[in-house]
Amino acid sequence: MALSNKTKSTVLRKVREEKDLTVRELSLGTNIPENTLYSIETGRSGVNAKRARTISTYLKEPLERLFESSLYHAKLEDK
């Protein structure tokens, strides 16, 4: 059973909160606007491959834990 955007976006928020980071801190660390991060976390918008990798790297979490490939519309090996 596939998880909804809302369910998967909750994973990103949960991980961010587990690491005691605010959206502002994540924004500053990734150079991704706060509004964009809120939209990704709430499932209002998807995330492109570059941003998904940036968030994954900053949080030190695998892409697969944070996002479904269908949400960032790119193969993991694409650069």
Automatic annotation (TrEMBL):
User: CDD domains this protein is in?
Assistant: HTH_XRE (cd00093)
List the Gene Ontology MF annotations in alphabetical order.
Answer: DNA binding
The protein's name = HTH cro/C1-type domain-containing protein
Cleavable signal peptide: none
InterPro entries per record: Cro/C1-type_HTH, Lambda_DNA-bd_dom_sf
The superkingdom listed in its UniProt entry is Bacteria
- Stored PROSITE patterns: HTH_CROC1
Describe the location of the HTH cro/C1-type domain by residue ranges. 12-66
